[in-house]
Amino acid sequence: LPERISISLTVNGETRHLDVLPWTVLLDLLRDHLGLTGTKKGCDHGQCGACTVILDGRRINSCMVFAVMKDGAEITTVEGLAKDGALHPLQQAFIDHDAFQCGYCTPGQLCSGVALIKEGRAHTRDEIREFMSGNLCRCGAYTNIVDAIEQVLGSNAEAGQ
Ligand code: FES
Ligand code: FES
Fold first, then answer.
1. 139: Cβ below 6 Å to ligand 2?
2. CB-hemisphere CA count at 13 Å for 38?
3. Which of 45, 77, 92, 150 has its C-alpha lying 20 to 30 A from 115's C-alpha?
4. C-alpha of residue 25 to centroid of ligand 1, in Å
5. Residue 89, exposed/middle/buried by CB under 10 A (0-12, 13-18, 19+)?
6. Which atom belonging to ligand 2 lies closest to the Cα atom of 138?
7. pLDDT tens, 58-89?
């Protein structure tokens, strides 16, 4: 076996030092090495968005990157969205709008939606749909997911954020 490579990642605010094999994929590292199983494996081929996490402020499909390529990165997973016992506003909005059924796509939808809201690029329902198009939902909860994101965008606009 080749040598393991030492990397450091900040995951949900905590610095983690890990020795990984060169081919360890970030998704597997999160789930299998760190026990953060909220991030889901759907297609494992960059096509469904179930594995979306926020890396240095950008949403990425964690099944598509080798962990060693992201040495030093800051990562937020679905487990890191709630703060001090309070749900992230988008998590609350998903509950308010019934934006999930089986829930398998939900961690990816939430991470993608949180990053999209921060990006500030989506202003209309069509734009939300377009920028969320990398996150598939086999249950077809799309309308409610857009409702939830729209609610948070609306309350941020009211709050002048
Ligand atoms: Fe990564 Fe589907 S599991 S995109
Ligand atoms: Fe089931 Fe989206 S809620 S896949």
1. yes
2. 17
3. 45
4. 12
5. middle
6. 4
7. 999 999 999 999 999 999 999 999 999 999 99
pTM score of the predicted model: 0.96
Residue ranges making up the domain that contains 73? 5-80
Q: Locate 139 and state its tokens.
A: 């249950």
Selection from 33, 63, 36, 68 nearest residue 51 by Cα: 63
User: Which ipTM value was assigned to this complex?
Assistant: 0.99
Of the candidates 56, 1, 47, the one whose C-alpha atom is nearest the C-alpha of residue 23 is 1
In this structure, the answer to whether residues 74 and 128 fall within a common structural domain is no
E strands, 37-150, in order: 52-55, 58-61, 74-76
Q: Which ligand is nearest the CA of 105, by number?
A: 2
CATH number for position 33 = 3.10.20.30
121 and 93 fall within a common domain: yes
Structural tokens at position 97: 């709008």
Q: What is the CATH number of the domain that holds 94?
A: 1.10.150.120
How many domains in the chain? Answer: 2
